[in-house]
Amino acid sequence: MSVTVTRDGIIRPQQDTRVEAAMLPSACPQNHAANLLPLPDGSLMCVWFGGTQEGYCGYLCVGFAPVTGKPAVE
Predict the structure, then answer these.
(1) Domain annotation covers residue 6
(2) I need a surface site. Which of 10, 39, 41, 50 has the fewest CB within 10 A?
(3) Count of the separate structural domains present in the chain
(4) Which branch of life, at top level (predicted)?
(5) What is the mean pLDDT of each run of 10 residues along the chain (74 residues)?
């Protein structure tokens, strides 16, 4: 069985009505340690680490702000 995952950053309700989820876009094959940051306008920014492999050069902090749909940190 195969599943198509849409990584567009749009927050969608889940089967459990107490949960909303968004699959965020990332050009990195490995991503971890996500954190949510509330912004002054009430929106949320998500930041995480991403790269080819932890411990190797090129690992960086990535951010995404769903309100604009654009990377918040480059």
Answers:
(1) no
(2) 41
(3) 1
(4) Bacteria
(5) 83 88 84 86 83 83 64 43
DSSP string, 6-72: --S---EE-SSTT-EE-PPP-S-SEEEEEEEEE-TTS-EEEEEEEESSTTSTT-EEEEEETTTTEEE
Question: Does 37 reside within a domain?
Answer: yes
Long-range CB contacts (< 8 A, 24+ apart) of 12-19?
none
Check residue 16 and give its pLDDT.
95
| Verdict on whether the full-model pTM lies above 0.70 | no
pLDDT value at residue 38: 84
Residue 1 placed within a domain: no
